[in-house]
Amino acid sequence: MRKISGNFKTSLLAGAIAAMAALSAQAQISDGMVKIGVMNDMSGLYADITGPGSLVAARLAVEDYIKASGSKLKVEVVGADHQNKPDVGSNIARQWFDTDKVDMIADVPTSSVGLAVAKIASDKGKLMVNSGSATADLSGKACNANTIHWAYDTWMLANGTGKAIVKSGGTTWFF
Description:
alpha/beta; Rossmann fold; five-stranded parallel sheet
């Protein structure tokens, strides 16, 4: 069993709660069940920091939410491997939204896949809670009302690191 990050579990729980509240309030749950899709890299270079552990974390977070809130809401969490390929991620997102009745997609590491899935979520009027893609474009030029960019981004990482190095006297940069 992989160790599950408490921060990631908390992120997904908060995202799931937000999605459930938003979907319940707007009565968009067509089949009486909230279905959350955890899409990530299950087998490649990001598998150890997302992968199967994220899927387990999402399921545990939903279980904790249901237990703590006493909610009678039916929630199912499904998972898929986007293989770090935007076309694979896009196809999964379309199938989930169009056929499998998935209400929101979470996780989605790999910026190219995150951007592709965010566009589809926007087009379909569905929710994406991104806690894996780092591209600043998700909260910049590709920002949309259906995507929550939950975690860090590339601008923040570079800006924060650069300022800290300069503040501590750094003057030389190597790339």
